[in-house]
Write a structure and sequence with these properties.
The chain is built from 7 helices and 10 strands. It is of the alpha/beta class. The longest helix has 18 residues. The protein binds adenosine-5'-diphosphate (ADP) and magnesium ion.
Length: about 230
């Protein structure tokens, strides 16, 4: 398989004003993510992992530098186009699942597909397949509150990839789980990424999980460096 670069950060800077002073979090960060790979982003708290993921996911603008998705420079695009790219090409998973509490697992996974214009039947079929990939096919009718933490995160991952994005960005997705459950959730995530040819960048504090990913990067001096 040719490994195409799907996400590229080039010379990305991000500075936060803090009263009189400026906090420089990213200072010319470069990073490439290729099709089919899972990369761990491992760095201490406060070094800029979430900032980097938000920039990569077009939730924020860099102060300098450029973010490319599928080879297209995204910084100068109108907000509507950035939103469309985010919806179609990027899936997000957070530490907490953010599932809609009044809907079942299946319905939560159907939602982004219905917004994207799929029929109910199509959305339901794909949601069921994704639940199977995440090994929770039997839990589809349950609401989030009736699911365990690990199951909730697997539904959140399924929802994130429901519209077949190119890139999965995950911000400490297993940070709230015990090690054994974290490992199981990662197994399912990995199987999904391998099967779908997605690319994933996963911020984690879990060195055991990081060691199972294809590459590990960290943030040092405001730059992304290989570990
Ligand atoms: P991490 O995810 O690695 O813990 P973050 O990217 O959340 O780090 O934050 C990096 C640093 O930037 C922290 O010191 C944080 O306080 C600061 N920061 C993040 N977002 C903002 C913001 N919107 N305004 C000011 N400072 C921020
Ligand atoms: Mg963070």
């Amino acid at each position: 398989m040719t490994r195409k670069t799907v996400l590229q950060l080039s010379g990305v800077e991000r500075h936060y004003g803090q009263g009189e002073t400026t906090l420089s979090i990213l200072k010319g960060a470069d990073f490439e993510l290729r099709t089919g790979e899972i990369v761990a982003l491992v760095a201490p708290s406060g070094t800029g992992k979430s900032t980097l993921l938000h920039l990569a996911g077009l939730l924020e603008h860099p102060d300098a530098g450029e973010v490319f998705l599928g080879g297209h420079a995204c910084n100068g695009l109108p907000d509507a186009e950035r939103t469309a790219i985010r919806r179609n090409e990027i899936g997000f998973v957070y530490q907490f699942h953010h599932l809609l509490p009044e809907f079942s697992a299946i319905e939560n996974i159907m939602m982004p597909q219905l917004i994207a214009g799929l029929s109910k039947a199509e959305a339901k079929e794909r949601a069921g397949q994704l639940l199977d990939y995440m090994r929770i096919g039997h839990r589809g009718e349950h609401r989030p509150s009736e699911l365990s933490g690990g199951e909730q995160q697997r539904v959140a991952i399924a929802r994130a990839v429901a519209n077949a994005p190119r890139v999965l960005l995950a911000d400490e997705p297993t940070g709230n789980l015990d090690p054994k459950t974290a490992s199981y959730v990662f197994d399912a995530l990995e199987a999904l990424v391998r099967q779908s040819g997605l690319a994933a960048l996963i911020a984690t504090h879990n060195h055991d999980l990081a060691s199972r990913m294809d590459r590990r990067v960290t943030i040092e001096g405001g730059k992304v460096v290989e570990m």
